[in-house]
Amino acid sequence: MTDLLRFPADFVWGASTAAYQIEGAAEEDGKGPSIWDTFVRRPGAVRDGHTGAVACDHYHRLDEDVALMRRLGLDAYRFSISWPRVLPAGAGRVEPRGLDFYDRLVDALLDAGIEPTPTLFHWDLPQALEDEGGWMVRDTAYRFGEYAAVVAERLGDRVRRWITLNEPFVHMSFGYGFGVHAPGRALMLDALPVAHHQLLGHGLAVAALRAGARPDAQVLIANNCSPVRLRADAASAADRLAADAYDALHNRLFNDPLLLGRYPDLSAYGLADPSWGGVVQDDDLKVIAAPLDGLGVNYYNPTWITAPADPAAGLPFDLAEPQEAYRRTAFDWPVVPDGLTELLVGLKAGYGDALPPVWITENGCSEPAGVDDRARIDYLAGHVGAVARAREQGVDVRGYFTWSLLDNFEWAEGYHQRFGLVEVDFETQTRTPRASFEWYRALIAAQRP
């Protein structure tokens, strides 16, 4: 390995997955339906009608998958807990068989020398709660805090690092704003209460974890962050205002309340009222801004913005394509490793001492099927190098979790996008480590003293 890829011995190397994307067993052992179980049955919602009913069958192949992690040499494994597998109706009755599964997973990881890093919510809201309004209503935040307490009581003696929410921006915008993810509600800017209620739920979960987990527990959130860029031909004052408006929505809406205890200026979205018409209640921001042990950052690429061609259309910005000829992943996302350095250094500059240690909780790419995935190796090497450069500039990055350990159900794309270090044949469930698996294994081994 080059000097660029050398990290301290205590730097944490991991991989990430999510419950609905890999577990399968959608109707087994008392699990209740999630919004994704419902959404996949909507005609045209998911490419080719794919569902997560079986996915990677991880629910039944736990031991095989942990053996792969041990072979890879992971320090930590980030997985998510299925809320409706633990609380089938989202609240009330606890399903012991659901907790038993995560109990076995945690023990298997610890036996393999891998630190379990559970995420409490990765987009699979219990359908029963969505029927009551989902994240559009305040009550869901309270139910999330109760769910966190249930999980902490069972697993908190062995789990040291927790993540509350995964990418609340994406869940708000794709699930409630544009309707392309579950629950499929196209509310546009009327979806903004989803942001506040997720963040309030996060704060309540932090309190529950602090009360119910081990004394040295660490609590994080995983935010999807994107540096905002202007095209070279879009540098007017209107373009800069559009970029600021987008940054407020994508990044600062979910970072400022956590780290600064306040929301950014959202007047561009018609929210000059700091209470958002009563959505934000007294003391909510104190709950949300409970001290964090780390900020999880999920990074895939920058976002290019211009001034809106039609300001009356509703959004104060337009998305744009970069002028540069970046390589594209199979998902058609531009590969921009220096964007990760830009993002991390920008977070440090913007938040200063308020920024806790940072963890890269997702970073990876979709590439064509096959095990000789040299493009993925180049992608990972570039982005790990970007983390190293950010550390050299003073950003306290403590760990890197690649997305993903396994090929999986990629939401509205079904099984057409492959992010895994391990190729999965979804007909036979055969797992085959790719070249990138061996590259990552060698990288991790090279860090050992």
Automatic annotation (TrEMBL):
Keywords: Carbohydrate metabolism, Cellulose degradation, Glycosidase, Hydrolase, Polysaccharide degradation. It is an enzyme of class 3 (hydrolase). Coiled coil: none annotated. Substrate binds at residues 21, 122, 166, 300, 403, 410-411. One of its GO terms (cellular component) is cytosol. InterPro entries: GH (IPR017853), GH_1_N_CS (IPR033132), Glyco_hydro_1 (IPR001360), Glyco_hydro_1_beta-glucosidase (IPR017736). GO terms for molecular function: beta-glucosidase activity. It comes from the Bacteria. The active site is at 167 (proton donor), 362 (nucleophile). It catalyses: Hydrolysis of terminal, non-reducing beta-D-glucosyl residues with release of beta-D-glucose. The keyword Glycoprotein does not apply. Its EC number is 3.2.1.21. One of its GO terms (biological process) is cellulose catabolic process. Belongs to the glycosyl hydrolase 1 family. This is Beta-glucosidase. The lineage of its organism: Bacteria, Bacillati, Actinomycetota, Actinomycetes, Kitasatosporales.
